[in-house]
Amino acid sequence: MEKSLNQNIIRELKEAILKSRYQAARLVNKELVSLYFEIGKKISVTAKKEAWGSKVLEQISTELQNELPGLRGFSSGNLKKMRVFAEFWMKHLNNGSAMPIQLDDPEKEIGSALPNQLPDNFANVFFSIGFTHHFSIASKCETLDEAWFYLQKTSTELWDYRHLEKQLKANLFMQQGTLPNNFDTTLPQSHKEKALQAFKDEYLLDFINIEDPDEEDERVIENEIVRNIKKFIMSIGGDFAFMGNQYRLIVEEQEFFIDLLFYNRKLQCLVAFELKKGKFKPEYLGKMNFYLSALDDTLKQEHENPSVGIILCKEKNNKIVEYSFRDFNKAMGVATYKTSTELPEQFKEALPDSETLKKLLD
Q1: Fewest CB atoms less than 10 Å from the CB: which of 120, 210, 234, 277?
Q2: Residue 83: exposed, middle, or buried by beta-carbon count in 10 A (0-12, 13-18, 19+)?
Q3: pLDDT, averaged across the chain
Q4: Domain 183-361 is in which class?
């Protein structure tokens, strides 16, 4: 009895400590974000009023260092970032009139004055994200909807800075719902919307570095994905759980193998990926339709939704894909992928050098 009581006390104390640490971290972050917004706003308003030159922020940074020796985080570069951050939200939140007051009180919903623009949980999400993430979002997003998309993803999926930058460069927001698919005719409306959000039109598999494109084939790509499965899941979305590669199905004593099989927790269904090194061909859908039928009959559980299949190929013509989908009764989509050797310059800048990539693949 005493042992059980002690364990309960330890568990309760542990929960209290963790909760306190979380609250403390949240309050510290709230104070920093609020401070940086206020500083950025003051700089923005004063710079426009006084017509500041390019060197003024350097002078301000130097004076702050003189007044507060040892002060960190207020270089001229950081002051510029604060200004960018503040100007974005001043522009998009009622021209800034509501933002300063509500930033001072995170318990009061930031979006209370703008119910048609912001969801109820906006303030909680906003203050859960560090300033480095905030600056990336504010400096690269054009609209409030786009910024909210990345804020929510960063908060709920715990994106680190590098992953956020990668998704911003890949323009994930604009890719939502663009996957060529037959979901309209194969999925119920509520399930269709979730499926459209779960899959992208193109995936950046930047952890795959194939030095000789002539040697590239489906099995090479598959092996690299399996060896870097955590990175692949980060590319396709955090709701996926890996079930296996070359997943074995037996139908009438014949063996069939699915390249990659996942389970999606949000969709509550099996998701099969088939890899193709070249252009999309209509016959790929027939094979995938067969796989999905077999999965639904032999592996899907009663409470789960019908399986979804994604053909992942190098190239596709959307009109050919559209015609190919007709008369199939299983939910499927066709996406493309790029590897590190095919990424444009703006993506390559965000990647490790070739030596680091080789170590990752070893």
Answers
A1: 120
A2: buried
A3: 77
A4: alpha beta
